[in-house]
Amino acid sequence: MKFYFVYILKCKDESLYVGITSDLERRIMEHNAGKYPEAYTHSRRPVELVFYQDFTDPNQAITFEKRIKKWSRAKKQCLIDENFDKLQSLAECRNATHHKYKPDEE
């Protein structure tokens, strides 16, 4: 069975990088070796693996990677720290027009 990994790296400059691969160990070595000069992590080496999740379905992995790439740093850090309560709180809609903030209409 083939696995796909969505991962988060912490870069030397403290930024977080989200990626996807089918060979996690090889990919982290490539990041740290600077294999791709145009890559975000190239000038931010060394990098450290701080989170990964494995998937057997590549489409699920791609969807998850796309989702967390859009997240704020705070949400990514909650995922890394496994602080799922705070992650849920940060994920809640805070828009004043959201149904949660509207008074009950009778």
Within CATH, the superfamily carries the name GIY-YIG endonuclease
Largest sheet: 3 strands, antiparallel
Mean pLDDT: 90
Shape by Cα distribution: globular
Count of strand segments: 3
As laid out across the biggest beta sheet, the strand order is: 2-1-3
Rg, rounded, reads 17 Å
* CATH-scheme architecture: 3-Layer(aba) Sandwich
Helix/strand class = alpha+beta
As a percent range, the share of strand residues is: 15-25%
User: What is the CATH topology?
Assistant: GIY-YIG endonuclease
Helix content: 25-40%
Question: Alpha-carbon distance between the termini?
Answer: 55 Å
Name of the level-1 CATH class: Alpha Beta
Total domains: 1
Report on the architecture of this protein:
This protein has 106 residues and is an alpha+beta fold. The chain has a single domain (4-93), classed as GIY-YIG endonuclease (3-Layer(aba) Sandwich), CATH 3.40.1440. Helices cover 37% and strands 20% of the residues. The protein contains 4 helices and 3 strands; from the N terminus they run E-E-H-E-H-H-H. It has helices at 24-33, 58-69, 73-81, 84-91, and strands at 4-10, 16-21, 48-55. A 3-stranded antiparallel beta sheet has the order 2-1-3, sandwiched between helices. Strand 1 (4-10) and strand 2 (16-21) form a beta hairpin. The protein is globular and about 50 Å long. The model has no long low-confidence stretch (mean pLDDT 90).
